[in-house]
């Protein structure tokens, strides 16, 4: 369908629109100004050119949003976080102990708690990571002075006093108002140890574990939503083969009971990256039984591989581009694993749990290499937006995800130094995107120009949209190009919206970041770079930016 529209500035627009499902026919073109008299003949010519060569010759940036046909609910758990006993994530970053001068609640930093509440953390994974397969939970319960110290063999070889254990973690989740996600020890633990942990946490009957829990000051069982049966068992979690792990997982899972009204969502250790063989084995072997409800995936974006990684703040455009490109690959990774799951589980009863994702750069100079402490720049913000948009788009299969990690480790949302705290650009993306939590995904059709670097090119824009329970539509966008703004034409089909508001996160440099000295360099502000006319939004996305728009009826 074609039609003409003239706007106030006497611009004549030729609009070409077909139903959204006819992907290849959806186009919306903004044509050069013309005098009335010449419009008709010119239009005929232009249309014929477009018909033949629209795809190749005209690079329009267009996002069609279908607002009246909401789909899958975007599980809020896609916006989850991860806190490992690693570097200063738990000790110093979250936990300072009740005797600390740093203001705290039951030993948990108040500043960190308040900031995390703001982003509506839906679930929190603990205690690892690789640490999980060395962790023996009974070392971390009971009176603090009686707890055994342990050496964190994976991360820096430091001694931990176990003052942060099961009770402290469950208190943290209560204070955050989020669900707990505990990762069990398969690598160096036992079936009994894991089974007893679940009993200790969730049982309300008379038994030695509930007796012990009560002695330690907790009468009622906790609610425990997620429980992972090992972590990276193909690597730090025991160097197992896929068949060996599948059998082991079945054995462990058999003894992970649901007590009282607690219903465990058991997460089997899945592969990392493109290891589809592992997923195939897990799904083939155990997929048809109810041994697990979720399969985990880990994916880190590592520029030029583990040997290089690059700096979190001192990088050139090639490294920026590579980071974008690697982050976009999450889409293919999900598609690949989801296709295997679809064969064994077409009803999608099992979820993908992407419980470690993020950028992994070199540690900050002068810091312990085992602590994985890295700064966080505008680059991380754009890639967080890419990931969250991808997760939203795969909400039918991706049921949960956890950024690695929450505080002071890898792509953190928060950095701390003694009593100081700084919110990273990634933090603000989570704050902006929280509107998608438990909203319904909207169908979109995105056509956009490329962002080219050397001989490589990637899409310049990342997007997703949802409608919440109040009928508000949220559109989240990122411009991956650090050099060039993009003008996006966005027809919103199927409903009418009166009011549009927006927020933007951008910066002057591609490596701008927030430090303890200058904590407000990268911060969201009100966004006005759009106009809405007759159901069509025109949005100017500045270079290297993340934008969230809200449309109200
Ligand atoms: O997040 C850091 C580490 O990365 C985790 O401990 C491990 O699971 C992964 O390899």
Description:
The chain is of the alpha/beta class. It has two domains: 2-73 and 441-552, Immunoglobulin-like (Sandwich); 78-87 and 118-438, Alpha-Beta Barrel (TIM Barrel), CATH 3.20.20.80. It has eleven helices and 30 strands. The strands form eight sheets. An eight-stranded parallel β-barrel has the order 5-8-11-12-13-14-15-16, surrounded by five helices. A six-stranded antiparallel β-sheet has the order 19-23-24-30-26-27, with helices on one face. A hairpin with a 2-residue loop joins strand 17 and strand 18. The radius of gyration is 25 Å and the shape is globular. The two termini are 27 Å apart. Residues 1-58 have low confidence and may be disordered.
Quick structural gist:
The protein has 553 residues and is of the alpha/beta class. 25% of the residues lie in helices and 26% in strands.
- Name the CATH architecture of the largest domain: Alpha-Beta Barrel
Name the structural class: alpha/beta
| Helix count, DSSP H or I runs of 4 or more residues | 11
The structural domain count equals 2
Order of neighbouring strands in the sheet with most strands? 5-8-11-12-13-14-15-16
Globally, the shape reads: globular
Mean pLDDT: 91
Rg result? 25 Å
Which consecutive residue ranges, at least 5 long each, have pLDDT under 50? 1-58
β-strand number: 30
Helix coverage percent of residues? 10-25%
**Ligands present:** alpha-L-arabinofuranose
CATH class type of the largest domain:
Alpha Beta
At CATH level 3, the topology of the largest domain is TIM Barrel
Largest sheet: 8 strands, parallel, barrel
CATH homologous superfamily label of the largest domain: Glycosidases
